[in-house]
Design a protein that fits this description.
Elements: H1 2-5, H2 17-24, E1 48-52, H3 59-70, E2 74-76, H4 77-86, H5 92-99, H6 107-123, E3 129-132, H7 138-147, E4 152-157, H8 160-168, E5 170-173, E6 179-181, E7 185-188, E8 194-198, H9 205-208, E9 211-212, H10 219-241, E10 246-250, H11 255-265, H12 269-278
Parallel strand pairs: 1-3, 1-4, 2-3, 4-10
Antiparallel strand pairs: 5-6, 5-9, 7-8
Helix pairs in contact: 2-6, 4-5, 4-6
The protein binds adenosine-5'-diphosphate (ADP).
Length: about 280
């Protein structure tokens, strides 16, 4: 209870069972040095990983792939916000005014959505998580640190000129929720030669006619989100770097080039091979 009350210094105490679960059920064994990350400890607890990175970098894509590989839930606060927006719940209108302008939602709202999601996971006896989109401010990182131990923070990085193109090319299938990208990024260097290539991630025929674009993926709003990332979220990188938990990963291109390299960086190549063999 003490840990949970610490979540909201100066605000209403959150005494959610999910937060209690989060703080108590987690076995806080971790290493401050960045050796090969453990994917499951002897007690059977799944990883506690966090993805950081600018809008459009691909946090959702890689977090979702790793969550399938490791059998832990991928929890995206952006998705939680969008689900709430799509509902006719009491928060929807308030959220639309914030999200559609690229601003950050208040800690109170984000923590309440996250708590609800964790409570749901509790009923399914989930173990571990890969967080994407949280924490996004130093305050959120402190809140998270107060309730559970994070093993590893993967900071995905992509050149700034590719980020805008990736956000503008992002599409979602309104039927199955699949994420695609129609942008073909070909950036030339000063000598006129191609410097960086990222192929589009095109949808299968079934999804092609059902694609929608996120309302906050317009040029104006993406630029504002990038500005806010640099101001509010970039300091979170230092927060984890200082704790020896930050793994910097420069994306070398699209999924075919980046995924194997990410697995290598995470020491998960064997894991992927075993899963492919048993599939
Ligand atoms: N941890 C958070 N704190 C505050 N607002 C958040 C958080 N996570 C998501 N949001 C809101 O949801 C929006 C979409 O989030 P996300 O899908 O993670 O976007 P991005 O592509 O910018 O990483 C954000 O612009 C913000 O308004």
């Amino acid at each position: 209870m003490a840990v949970v009350s610490r979540l909201w210094r100066g605000g209403a105490a959150v005494c959610s069972p999910a937060m209690m679960w989060l703080s108590l059920a987690m076995d806080a064994r971790f290493s401050t040095s960045l050796g090969p990350p453990k994917t499951r400890d002897p007690g059977g607890r799944g990883v506690h990983w966090v993805f950081l990175g600018c809008p459009g970098v691909g946090k959702g894509t890689y977090a979702s792939r790793l969550s399938q590989l490791l059998g832990v839930p991928h929890i995206s606060t952006g998705d939680l916000v969008r689900e709430e927006l799509a509902s006719s719940g009491p928060l929807a209108q308030q959220l639309a005014g914030i999200v559609n302008h690229g601003q950050l939602v208040s800690n109170e709202i984000i923590m309440s959505l996250l708590t609800k999601r964790l409570e749901h996971g509790e009923t399914k006896v989930e173990s571990g998580f890969i967080l994407d989109g949280f924490p996004r401010t130093i305050r959120q990182a402190e809140i998270l640190e107060g309730v559970t131990e994070i093993d590893l923070v993967i900071n995905l990085k992509l050149r700034e000129d590719a980020l805008l193109a990736k956000c503008l090319g992002r599409r979602i299938c309104s039927h199955c929720g699949g994420n695609y990208n129609v942008a073909s990024v070909n950036i030339k260097g000063e000598n006129g030669r191609l410097d960086f290539i990222m192929a589009p991630l095109l949808p299968p025929a079934d999804c092609a006619s059902k694609l929608i674009t996120r309302v906050d993926d317009t040029e104006e709003v993406v630029k504002e989100r990038l500005r806010i990332y640099n101001e509010m979220s970039k300091p979170v990188e230092e927060f984890y770097r200082a704790r020896g938990k930050l793994l910097e990963f420069d994306l070398p291109g699209g999924i075919p080039e980046s995924w194997p390299k990410l697995l290598q960086a995470l020491n998960l190549v064997d894991h992927d091979d075993k899963q492919s063999a048993s599939a």
